[in-house]
């Protein structure tokens, strides 16, 4: 049993333990997933052959093993006051979905520090019939937007009833028709970069995060099939779904992960970068991942 720091200050990464009848360093090491050598190293002067009941020693604390969560879920560490219902509500999922991702979990016996997998709800289906959305920026003119996406003003107005070309509020989301585009995207898993190309020439390169070794980003040639504004949670401010089911290019809620292998397979960008890219590429844009 651990007794915190009642009698002496143990080194960081260890905690006090009181010797009980029958204890040996070997048994204690087995109990707490450490080694006899590690215990001896933080208890100078200890005599392994002369332990006595009530003696206080320091034992290295068992570090939680990194949790490998299935695709579509992310690790979560249970906090004080958490219930599955509260966690489900926080992540916009359901208790049943969390239980399905954690078959051995006991909903009535959660404990602080416990690691579980929480399902990542995909962004809700957009109301845009073409699934090709655009966010109005300061200075936008409808004729310029139409020209950039190779469509007509009339076609934009036809699928955006009530849109006033002379009064488009910044941040308003409009729907665009889908037309062929000279743009394409290349994602290098090794370099952790996303390149935007126009007719084969590089326009801009962005840093990204890709999949962990246990949940790798799929390689191949895909296309963007839908676009969603403010999906929230781990998807950040924008979502661009790929033709590979359950994968996409999106923002983030952990900027420090960019440039690393950290996602569950999706391509993760800084929110400012994904906002920019989102307004440049239409649905059907080709995405090559290698």
Automatic annotation (TrEMBL):
<dbReference type="GO" id="GO:0018104">
    <property type="term" value="P:peptidoglycan-protein cross-linking"/>
</dbReference>
<dbReference type="InterPro" id="IPR050979">
    <property type="entry name" value="LD-transpeptidase"/>
</dbReference>
<keyword id="KW-0808">Transferase</keyword>
<dbReference type="GO" id="GO:0005576">
    <property type="term" value="C:extracellular region"/>
</dbReference>
<feature type="domain" description="LysM">
    <location>
        <begin position="15"/>
        <end position="59"/>
    </location>
</feature>
<dbReference type="GO" id="GO:0008360">
    <property type="term" value="P:regulation of cell shape"/>
</dbReference>
<keyword id="KW-0378">Hydrolase</keyword>
<comment type="pathway">
    <text>Cell wall biogenesis; peptidoglycan biosynthesis.</text>
</comment>
<dbReference type="GO" id="GO:0016757">
    <property type="term" value="F:glycosyltransferase activity"/>
</dbReference>
<dbReference type="GO" id="GO:0071555">
    <property type="term" value="P:cell wall organization"/>
</dbReference>
<feature type="domain" description="LysM">
    <location>
        <begin position="74"/>
        <end position="118"/>
    </location>
</feature>
<dbReference type="InterPro" id="IPR005490">
    <property type="entry name" value="LD_TPept_cat_dom"/>
</dbReference>
<feature type="active site" description="Nucleophile">
    <location>
        <position position="266"/>
    </location>
</feature>
<dbReference type="Pfam" id="PF01476">
    <property type="entry name" value="LysM"/>
</dbReference>
<dbReference type="InterPro" id="IPR038063">
    <property type="entry name" value="Transpep_catalytic_dom"/>
</dbReference>
<dbReference type="Pfam" id="PF03734">
    <property type="entry name" value="YkuD"/>
</dbReference>
<feature type="domain" description="L,D-TPase catalytic">
    <location>
        <begin position="183"/>
        <end position="290"/>
    </location>
</feature>
<keyword id="KW-0961">Cell wall biogenesis/degradation</keyword>
<feature type="domain" description="LysM">
    <location>
        <begin position="132"/>
        <end position="176"/>
    </location>
</feature>
<protein>
    <submittedName>
        <fullName>Putative L,D-transpeptidase YkuD</fullName>
        <ecNumber>2.-.-.-</ecNumber>
    </submittedName>
</protein>
<keyword id="KW-0133">Cell shape</keyword>
<dbReference type="GO" id="GO:0071972">
    <property type="term" value="F:peptidoglycan L,D-transpeptidase activity"/>
</dbReference>
<keyword id="KW-0573">Peptidoglycan synthesis</keyword>
<feature type="active site" description="Proton donor/acceptor">
    <location>
        <position position="250"/>
    </location>
</feature>
<dbReference type="InterPro" id="IPR036779">
    <property type="entry name" value="LysM_dom_sf"/>
</dbReference>
<keyword id="KW-0328">Glycosyltransferase</keyword>
<dbReference type="InterPro" id="IPR018392">
    <property type="entry name" value="LysM"/>
</dbReference>
<comment type="similarity">
    <text>Belongs to the YkuD family.</text>
</comment>
């Amino acid at each position: 049993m651990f007794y915190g720091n009642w009698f002496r200050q143990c080194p960081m990464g260890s905690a006090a333990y009181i010797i009980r009848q029958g204890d040996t360093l070997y048994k204690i090491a087995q109990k707490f997933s450490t080694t006899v050598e590690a215990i001896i190293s933080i208890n100078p002067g200890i005599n392994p052959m002369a332990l006595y009941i009530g003696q206080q020693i320091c034992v290295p604390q068992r570090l939680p093993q990194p949790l490998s969560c299935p695709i579509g879920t992310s690790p979560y560490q249970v906090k004080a006051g958490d219930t599955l219902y509260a966690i489900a509500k926080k992540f916009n999922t359901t208790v049943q979905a969390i239980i399905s991702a954690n078959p051995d979990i006991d909903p009535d016996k959660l404990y602080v520090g416990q690691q579980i997998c929480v399902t990542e709800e995909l962004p809700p289906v957009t109301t845009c019939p073409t699934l090709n959305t655009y966010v109005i920026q300061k200075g936008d003119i409808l004729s310029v937007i139409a020209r950039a996406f190779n469509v007509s003003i009339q076609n934009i107005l036809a699928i955006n009833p009530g849109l006033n070309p002379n009064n488009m509020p910044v941040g308003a989301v409009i729907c665009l028709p889908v037309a062929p585009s000279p743009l394409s995207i290349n994602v290098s898993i090794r370099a952790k970069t996303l390149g935007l190309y126009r007719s084969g020439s590089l326009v801009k390169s962005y840093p990204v995060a890709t999949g962990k070794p246990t949940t790798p980003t799929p390689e191949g040639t895909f296309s963007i099939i839908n676009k969603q504004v403010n999906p929230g949670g781990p998807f950040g401010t924008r979502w661009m779904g790929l033709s590979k089911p359950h994968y996409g290019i999106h923002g983030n809620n952990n900027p420090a992960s960019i440039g690393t292998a950290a996602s569950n397979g999706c391509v993760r960008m800084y929110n400012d970068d994904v906002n920019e890219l989102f307004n440049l590429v239409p649905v059907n844009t080709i995405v090559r991942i290698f």
